[in-house]
Amino acid sequence: SASFTRYLHAQYGASGLDRLMESYRDGLDCKRGVEVALGSTLKQLERQWRVNVLNENRTGVAAQNLLPWLVLAFVALAAPLGLALGRLLRK
Hints:
Blueprint: H1 2-25, H2 30-38, H3 42-52, H4 58-90
Helix pairs in contact: 1-2
């Protein structure tokens, strides 16, 4: 959390952190407070922090985020493709 806070300070300055704290004082939740104060989603900020501070590979992060969807697509398509190939081979 300290690393993320330092990143926010470096990107948005003390005034950005002040706006963030003010949005929380106004009763906004974590996600909405970030959007109002900093003009970005919490997910976008985390991704930027990971790339810039932790030197995460953007392609690797994107692949990691897409992996469950690719597995689901493979599972959903495997049975119909298997049946179609089986029918073709029987002919």
